Amino acid sequence: MTETWNPADPGVLRLPSGRLIRGRGLRRPLPPGAPEPSYALYLLGGQPPPVPWESTWIRWPDFRLPADRPAARVALTAAWERAVCERVEVACGGGRGRTGTALACLAVLDGVPAEEAVDFIRRHYDRRAVETPWQKRYVRTFAG
Fold first, then answer.
1. Which residues in the chain show pLDDT less than 70?
2. CA 87 to chain centre
3. Among 12, 63, 109, 131, which one is least packed by beta carbons within 10 Å?
4. pLDDT of amino acid 30
5. Which domains, and CATH codes, for the chain?
6. Exposed, middle or buried, 131 (CB in 10 Å: 0-12/13-18/19+)?
């Protein structure tokens, strides 16, 4: 069964392939009536609280990079693959730095050139996404 996001909903990013992924800041609760994800990738320094949907946690401290980069690559690839037919959410505390970095990596997986991925996310998701020079470098080197 295909369950994806409404492209008009807040935080929903359309990748070039047509995949829809929602980015979100966990410090803001889901708006009333907003659809729940079927799968979420949480990018936090500490373990997130339990949720009623399937989720994966990547240890990723605020303003930093994933603690385990090979595991992050596997989780990001899985999220990108699942977004074909599932409501995939990527979220950190504020929804900009780590979330923007992860979304830029998903854009690279989707065929956006690595050197253009941060600009793509800033144009189509949040103009302040990907907050630090090392997050930008991580995206540029994500392809290989």
1. 1-2
2. 12
3. 63
4. 85
5. 12-142 (3.90.190.10)
6. middle
The DSSP bridge partners found for residue 40 are 55, 89
Of the CA atoms within 13 Å of residue 81, those in its CB half-sphere come to: 6
Nearest-angstrom CA–CA distance, 32 and 101: 27
47-76 per-position pLDDT tens digit = 999 999 999 999 999 999 999 999 999 999
For residue 57, what are the β-bridge partners?
42
For the chain, what is the HEC assignment? CCCCCCCCCCCEEECCCCCEEEEEECCCCCCCCCCCCCEEEEEECCCCCCCCCEEEEEECCCCCCCCCHHHHHHHHHHHHHHCCCCCEEEEECCCCHHHHHHHHHHHHHCCCCHHHHHHHHHHHCCCCCCCCHHHHHHHHHHCC
Distance (Å, whole) CA 90 – CA 37: 9
Distance CA 43, CA 56 (A): 9
Residues of 63-96 as b/e, b for ≥16 C-beta within 10 angstroms? ebebeeeeebeebbeebbebbeebbbbbbbbbbb
